[in-house]
């Protein structure tokens, strides 16, 4: 159930219909968790898969965690971290990584924390193509997140194990500031246009300036919070039994929904996509449900006009994201991949990178591509047609 409030609505301003954040820098590929530093999970200019085929099935194990991806190259959330050429069907390199943190790629460099006891307080930086180490950045404590980057790409922001975050100059590697928070920082940070949003296990949301200034903080009023999503006027938070849109300027609630989520959100400016047994598309201005799809087990991932979601029946499903059409007109195709698909997916043009539990119990990576670009080592598994475009 959604409730709409008026907090934070000053003057004659009404909530924006399209709240997509200006300043988002990543336009292509899936270089970090949830695609970009605002955590939208929306490949806005992306081309969706229309004629799907399973292009690649890895023979290594990995956690069911969202990878990063550039073109046909995947970067696993794993230790060791695998750099995989999915079109060529080979692992290009293995490096130190983290089984809990999706790596980040920026300007040809791959950033990842590491779980090794020899280098616990370093952010490691590799060449994103070869996997060779190019530098390391010493941090005040062990990192718990991949870096989120300022819009100008001069500063990275990282969560630390001692209930702090820090800002680091990308060129020099010097720590610019640290800030103490209440509760551990486990979820990815959200950064856009001079603001840093941090969710903590103390069930708090902090709004900080990129210079370390503290603007406001509010209670999340829910357990198991996921990463925040930054819009143009609002910031969106969610956990087990609450989804809320908050005024970006002061944290006041614009609307709330008591259904909650169990995976990260996705956001295309007009709709907030939320998964907890079914996938719901909520109006970002009012919180009203525009459409739903069931079953949906994974977090949603959006590319162009399509929403991808995994089911607990082991299928990857592609849905038309627009309009308010009924269920039978929304599903475009479905591909069986195993016993389970999720927890969250990555997408590049005409590819979807899926953590999967296979029928033999192996947790690994499966990539679905459009037949027009698939590499030579495809498995031949294709889609069952859905109900067509709405």
Automatic annotation (TrEMBL):
Residues 1-23 are annotated as: Disordered. It comes from the Archaea. SUPFAM superfamilies: Quinoprotein alcohol dehydrogenase-like (SSF50998). Pfam families: PQQ_2. Residues 162-294 form the Pyrrolo-quinoline quinone repeat domain. InterPro entries: PQQ_b-propeller_rpt, PQQ_rpt_dom, Quinoprotein_ADH-like_sf, WD40/YVTN_repeat-like_dom_sf. This is PQQ-like beta-propeller repeat protein. The lineage of its organism: Archaea, Methanobacteriati, Methanobacteriota, Stenosarchaea group, Halobacteria.
């Amino acid at each position: 159930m959604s409730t709409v409030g008026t907090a934070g609505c000053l003057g004659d301003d009404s909530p924006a219909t399209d709240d997509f954040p200006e300043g988002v820098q990543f336009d292509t590929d899936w270089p970090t968790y949830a695609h970009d530093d605002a955590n939208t999970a929306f490949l806005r200019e992306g081309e969706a898969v229309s004629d799907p085929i399973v292009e690649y099935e890895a023979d290594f194990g990995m956690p069911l965690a969202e990878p990063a991806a550039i073109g046909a190259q995947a970067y696993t959330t794993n230790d060791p971290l695998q750099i995989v050429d999915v079109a060529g069907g080979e692992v290009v390199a293995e490096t130190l990584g983290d089984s809990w943190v999706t790596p980040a790629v920026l300007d040809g460099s791959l950033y990842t924390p590491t779980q090794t006891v020899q280098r616990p307080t370093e952010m490691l930086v590799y060449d994103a193509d070869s996997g060779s180490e190019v530098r390391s950045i010493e941090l005040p404590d062990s990192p718990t997140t991949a870096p989120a980057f300022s819009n100008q790409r001069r500063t990275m922001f990282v969560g630390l194990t001692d209930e702090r975050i820090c800002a680091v100059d990308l060129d020099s590697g010097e720590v610019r500031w640290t800030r103490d928070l209440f509760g551990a920082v486990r979820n990815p940070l959200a950064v856009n246009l001079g603001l840093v949003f941090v969710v903590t296990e103390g069930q708090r949301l902090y709004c900080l300036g990129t210079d370390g200034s503290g603007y406001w903080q509010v209670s999340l009023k829910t357990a198991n919070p996921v990463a925040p999503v930054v819009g143009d006027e609002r910031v969106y938070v969610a956990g087990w039994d609450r989804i809320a849109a908050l005024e970006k300027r002061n944290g006041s609630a614009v609307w709330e929904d008591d259904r909650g989520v169990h995976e990260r959100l996705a956001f295309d400016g007009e709709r907030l996509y939320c998964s907890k047994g079914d996938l719901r598309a909520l109006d970002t201005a009012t919180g009203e449900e525009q459409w739903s799809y069931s079953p949906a087990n994974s977090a949603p991932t959006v590319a162009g006009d399509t929403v991808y979601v995994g089911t607990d029946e082991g299928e990857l499903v592609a849905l038309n994201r627009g309009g308010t059409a009924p269920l039978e007109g929304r599903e475009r195709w479905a591909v069986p991949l195993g016993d389970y698909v999720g927890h969250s997916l990555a997408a590049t043009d005409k590819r979807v990178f899926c953590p999967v539990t296979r029928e033999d119990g192996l947790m690994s990576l499966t990539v679905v591509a459009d037949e027009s670009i698939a590499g030579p080592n495809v498995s031949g598994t294709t889609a069952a047609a859905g109900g067509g475009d709405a």
